[in-house]
Design goal:
alpha/beta, 3 domains, 35% helix, 15% strand, globular
Length: 604
């Protein structure tokens, strides 16, 4: 990869919302350190998360940034300085939720606002209609946010006109059914956004970069069509300096946060590029397509490559790629835990494969050399064991990792058996395998920790995970081994995500499959987006799903109910020299495993 091309491609965090501001929307050290790490990792331009121009009615759930008052300039300036000191540029994204908000998230428990009343979004609160007399004030909110951005030292502003927020609500015939000058034909529906752009330009001047983020299409009945989206881009072309192109809104969340193959949103950007003269930014799981995108930027198909969720997973993606170390990038799995498990619930964003997200300063401290070199034995080469072994070795300890199986990965092999994340999980297993070698960890496969002489080790970390009951076929063992049960018809019993993966994998192998849950739902331990994604795949593959059904029993039933902690060497555990880590210690799934493994090693 040519480093100048990557720098010129302006890879950016694509306004990934992380909720790291304070309760009142102020920039604090957590948010600064998050962005500092991404700037240090080689990003050309950072675009902040959606930054509120209307805290009372238009902020997102959780802890977003705000730019609706001059009092927030100090924190915003601190953020800009931190990014500039690392050699990157930073833009602020001006944002208003409009109808895509809940009444409980407004300052005075008021309904959210929208061009047209009563058209409820995925967030479930019917909005009230914006009075025509209110429109100039709303336009000015964006303009004043832009003024503050210039004063704080930002290098650009981006208007968030995508994903179903206020600017796009005026543009969409689905959400704008007004009969005045702000609704009806495209020229009227586009008027609000165009007036916002003009007001912002008046505040920032002719030479200050103004970017516009746009969902080119809303892929549902009555939504914005691609042709209207392209026509709107042509209207924006003489007014803005770049177009940041995506698709969908939160009513079609699987479009804007794809879990499908990388690059699914790029056709939108390429279509816009053919119709406008300003630079175009492409998005959509692009860390997996860096070679292709280098060519796309080089031949003029795109101008900027935007990295969003992938920057949560690995802030050093660009720096590693420049160094020719693409294999060392922690590539985002796109399971959407970051969004659906945390962000949608108003919590600070986390990542299942990056234990340091949101704790960048603490994680950097954890990676410093240990004061005393120790001998460390880690049992279990799943995510918890790998994270623990890697950090312990990085800190200078002598590390031995033992694994009863003949390969690294643990339960990742089960999770990656079915099609949805097969490539991603295979890549992660390869990442761990290679990183262990590079770190100098002695890996002993086919070795039971009970057979190891532990006397010579200062610390023993037991990352042996969880085990299933004795009855029936264990879903995890089946998926990891690829051993099909007998018979053409198979029943999977369980309420877990594993049950969904097991049923899907069996169907993919040609078995007629029934998934039976003892609860009134299935996949209760996964996030809503992942659950919906898997449910759709189960339906496509003809899997019958029955809920609230008793255990069918039988030796051939594939069981995917809750598992119990491993008890290997339980009598030796003292909480100091010998410790339990990972899901064995704290339950849960991959996030809990990686967190536990990393931070346990930080204490040695």
């Amino acid at each position: 990869h040519d480093s100048s091309l990557l720098a010129r491609s302006g890879a950016s965090p694509s306004a990934r919302a992380v909720q790291f501001a304070t309760t009142w929307g102020e920039v604090d050290q957590r948010l600064i350190e998050y962005h500092r790490a991404r700037a240090r990792g080689g990003i050309g331009l950072i675009i902040t998360e959606n930054t509120s121009v209307d805290w009372e009615l238009g902020r997102t759930v959780g802890n977003p940034m705000r730019i609706d008052h001059d009092r927030f300039r100090a924190g915003l300036t601190d953020l800009v300085e931190a990014v500039h000191n690392e050699g990157a540029k930073i833009a602020v994204q001006l944002h208003h939720t409009g109808r895509q908000n809940s009444q409980g998230n407004t300052e005075r428990n008021e309904p959210p606002i929208a061009p047209t009343a009563g058209i409820t979004s995925a967030f479930g609160t019917p909005p009230r209609a914006i009075e025509e007399s209110e429109i100039p004030g709303l336009i000015d909110l964006y303009a004043q946010g832009a003024r503050r951005a210039v004063a704080a030292g930002f290098d650009a502003v981006e208007l968030h006109g995508a994903h179903g927020y206020l600017l796009s609500q005026f543009l969409s015939p689905k959400t704008n059914r007004r009969t005045d000058d702000w609704g009806g034909p495209l020229e009227n529906r586009a008027r609000f956004a165009l007036e916002v752009v003009k007001a912002v330009r008046e505040q920032v001047g002719p030479d200050f970069p103004v970017l516009y983020r746009l969902s080119l299409e809303e892929p549902y009945e009555g939504g914005l069509s691609t042709e209207d989206g392209l026509a709107f881009c042509e209207l924006l072309d003489p007014l803005v300096d770049a177009l940041d192109i995506t698709g969908g809104n939160y009513d079609t969340a699987m479009t804007l946060l794809p879990m499908v193959a990388p690059g699914s949103l790029l056709p939108y950007a390429r279509a816009v590029k053919e119709r406008v003269t300003v630079p175009v930014i492409g998005v959509g799981r692009l860390t997996w397509l860096l070679d292709d995108l280098q060519k796309a930027v080089g031949n003029g198909e795109l101008d900027f490559v935007s990295l969003g969720r992938s920057q949560l997973a690995d802030p050093d993606t660009v720096a590693k790629t420049r160094r020719g170390e693409v294999g060392r990038v922690r590539r985002c799995l796109a399971v959407n835990e970051c969004v659906s498990r945390w962000m949608f619930n108003g919590q600070r964003t986390q990542c299942v494969i990056n234990p340091g997200l949101g704790q960048e300063k603490r994680a950097a401290d954890a990676r410093r050399p240990a004061p005393v070199r120790k001998r460390v034995l880690v049992a279990g080469a799943g995510p918890a064991g790998c994270e623990a072994a890697l950090l312990a070795a990085e800190r200078g300890h002598d590390v031995v990792l033992v694994e009863r199986d003949d390969r690294v990965g643990g339960q990742l092999h089960a999770w990656g058996a079915a099609s949805p994340f097969r490539a991603e999980i295979a890549n992660l297993i390869g990442f761990y395998t290679d990183e262990l070698t590079l770190a100098g960890v002695e890996v002993r496969l086919g070795t039971d920790v009970a057979d190891v002489d532990r006397a010579g080790f200062d610390h023993v970390l037991l990352a042996t995970g969880t085990v299933a009951g004795d009855e029936g076929v264990d879903a995890v063992a089946m998926l990891a081994s690829g051993a099909l049960p007998e018979g053409d018809e198979v029943t999977v019993f369980g309420e877990t995500e594993t049950a969904m993966f097991a049923a899907l994998w069996l169907a993919e192998q040609g078995r007629r499959t029934t998934l039976v849950s003892p609860l009134d739902a299935v996949g209760v331990d996964t996030n809503d987006m992942q659950n919906g994604h898997l449910a759709g795949l189960l339906e496509e593959h003809g899997v019958t799903v029955a809920t609230g059904v008793a255990d069918p029993g039988g030796a051939t039933t594939v069981r995917a109910t809750g598992r119990t902690p491993s008890r290997v060497l339980a009598d030796a555990v003292d909480g100091e020299r010998v410790r339990e880590i990972g899901t064995r210690a704290r339950g849960g799934r991959m996030y809990e495993a990686t967190q536990s493994g990393f931070w346990a090693a930080a204490e040695i």
